[in-house]
Amino acid sequence: MSEKHDVGGVPTTGHVWDDDLGDLVNQPPKWWMLGLTASAIWVCVYWLYYPSIPVSTTSNFFKGIGGWTAINEMEADKGVVDEVRGKYEAKLKDMTPAAILADGELTEYVTRSGKVLFGDNCAACHGTNGVGTTDKQGLFAPILNDDDWLYGGTIDDVHMSITDGRQGMMMAHKDMLSAAEIDTLANAVAAGTPTATPLFAEKGCTACHGEDGKGVAAMGSANLTDKVYRFDGSVEGIKYTIENGVNAGTPETRVAVMPSFKAAGKLSDAEMKKLAVYVYKFGGGQAAAPVAMEAAPVEAAASAVEASAPAAAQ
Amino acid sequence: MNDQVEQKEVGTVTGIYQEFETWTVNKGDKTIHAKRMPGFFRTVKTYLQFAMWLPFFLLPYMRWNGKQAVLFDIEHRQFHFFNLTVLPQDIWMLSLVLLVAAMTLFAVTSVASRVWCGYFCFQTAWTDWYTWIEDRIEGNPAARRKLDDAPWDMDKIKKKAAKHLAWMAIALLTGISFSIWFVDAFDYWKMLLSFQLPMVGWVVLAMFFAGTYLLAGMLREQTCLWLCPYARIQGTMGDAQTILPTYDFNRGEPRGKLRRGGEVVAQQGDCIDCFQCVQVCPTGVDIRDGQQLGCITCGLCIDACDSIMDKIGKPQGLIRYASLDELEGKPAKKIYQHPRTLVYLSIILIALAGIVYGLTHMGSMTLSVIPERQPLFVSLSDGSIQNKYQFKVLNKTDKDLHVTVSASGGIEGQQIIGAEKPHLTHHGRGTSFTIFVKAQGDKIMKEVTPLEFKVQAVEDTQVTAQYSTKFNGPKR
């Protein structure tokens, strides 16, 4: 049998399978041996180049002769991103939010890069994409993508809300008004016609909400004639607001506080500008302040001391 | 011969060992110095190679409307083909083009075997040019073998240096010619001559230079034997009907040397065992062993054999294009009786139809609209409902266009906000902008209302694109 296998002068290992299968003792091909050797060398080089020994004594470990670290690599990659963003960021620094908004390319950049910023700093209360968040009281933080702005919806108003914060205030009327009066007022507000009842003027609601009930932007008092409600638009919800007020210092009162991000020191000026543009571009931003809005603050300033109205940070 | 084959196949595993003794495997130990002989197929091959590859070198220099006529502009992600500009979005047609190419290869192979290998393939063509240069500089095969064995004297150094320099020049030109299909040809030359190519440019050039030099100069037929996948699969495309260069063993066997004085020996076949067919073969195979992996069906052995047959006064065609059926005396079938070819042809037709459809329906603008999902809609202070849409307009024309936005369907009296002014869309890339649609709350009858947007270019009202989407409202 074995001599049959003896082809080309190459001997066999001597083993025979299935009657006549033998195993020649040929060398592996040269390219294969070279590949194997190269792999062995590669393993050694790799092992030495990178921090590959998974043991450390106290703070001492083998750092690899290449000096590679994951952090360095990430920093280098971040450098690439920063370089791309750099030209926009440099421009943003010295521009007002309104100027950014007027520049189409920068607005595009901001609306794209602002998403992360908004997610990290704003979405906890205002929800992803500014859809608002609710708690047991109703709406906890205002919706940012509608066109109802308590403090005005121009780009500068929005920017100011972010930098300086907002704090709503409305007295609790539980002890000042009778249940029937509260009920009447609540129903009128729910219908969107607060001025329909004489109580609205008699009980001093107009001081903050304005004679027409449309709110005063300088104070952040709510527009009671529109279809958007700051907390809860049901009659029960409105009654609760009238009874317990906003930020009135009691445990039951509704809460409406927008912190000042300038005071918090967490965000840079440029980041706050970016957020202003980002929020403005949700869809509710107002191009130019309507005449009524400009006129209102003058009247409002006088009676601002006796403020008592639902308000919040928008 | 047939009996022999059968006998071998009858044996089990042991048969392989027996066959092994007659195997000749070309592992490139010896350089094949093929003889160049004039003839019909030599001429055909020379001209077809040029017809195939001259455009490869020259077409990139052709201008069309002031731009490069054919340019695969990777950097700007657009392909220019005369008047046509194809953007990556339409690249699915490329897969059909590749399918047509593959099926054409298959169809031709099923009819006339490896026509591509023998007359068109870049490996064949470049090797042919390289060996032509070798032939010019170093002389005929005998002289070349002698030179290879000769000691390194001045003459040998001169000849070898001249040959390799000529090869390198072709290799360099090949690398440049390849590159200029992807970068503007004249820009490329300028950058090259001022040594200002980008890194990727140098790498591509170096790879093609080295690849050409190595494949056509050194590896040659080894590429066909050991690297090329097509050589390995082509056997499945042919059958007994496929014509290919064939040695007519009925007529040729038993082969034997021609006796002096042209004596006719009754039992001797027409093959005089002159080995001319082997000597001219660029891959060094013996065609008399039958169709084999190494045969690229270039027909050069037919030329050689015919010239010998002429000399010894026998009819031509001992080696000729013939099918296995023909050799076995079976009647030749017509091409429409060849189902394999018909299948390939029908796939080609389907793919071509797809390409024609694609080219005629490509349009010069596409629109895609993504409705905002969070929130689906926003209630506004006047009780109306607003939806937000992200528009992506792809302008495939060659100039920037302004587009207007309009909508059909949707809610009665709806207002499109953000489309007061036409939007600028840059040519050759996507432009995105945001559009709001606002509708009165009491006009919204359904939670979801279909809505179709249309963008239309101001400069050319023929350029439009539509997209169907939804208008979302509160639950009813």
Q: Any overview of this molecule?
A:
The complex is a heterodimer of chains A (about 325) and B (about 475). By secondary structure, chain A is mainly alpha-helical. Chain A is about 45% helix and about 5% strand. Chain A contains 14 helices and six strands. In chain A, the strands form three sheets. In chain A, strands 1-2 form a two-stranded antiparallel sheet. Chain A has a two-stranded antiparallel sheet with strand order 3-4. A two-stranded antiparallel sheet of chain A has the order 5-6. In chain A, a hairpin with a 2-residue loop joins strand 3 and strand 4. Chain A is elongated and about 120 Å long. Chain B has about 475 residues and is of the alpha+beta class. Among the domains of chain B are: about 30-235, no CATH class; about 365-470, Sandwich (Immunoglobulin-like). In chain B, about 45% of the residues lie in helices and about 20% in strands. Chain B has helices spanning about 1-10, 15-20, 40-60, 90-110, 115-120, 120-140, 140-150, 155-180, 185-195, 200-220, 220-225, 230-235, 250, 275-280, 300-310, 325, 340-360, and strands spanning about 65, 65-70, 70-75, 80, 85, 245, 320, 365-370, 380, 385-395, 400-410, 415, 425, 430-440, 450-455, 465-470. In chain B, a hairpin with a 2-residue loop joins strand 4 and strand 5 (about 85). In chain B, helix 4 packs antiparallel against helix 17 (about 340-360), helix 6 packs antiparallel against helix 8 (about 155-180) and helix 8 crosses helix 10. The model of chain B is unreliable at about 1-10 (pLDDT under 50). The interface of A and B includes residues 143 and 147 of A.
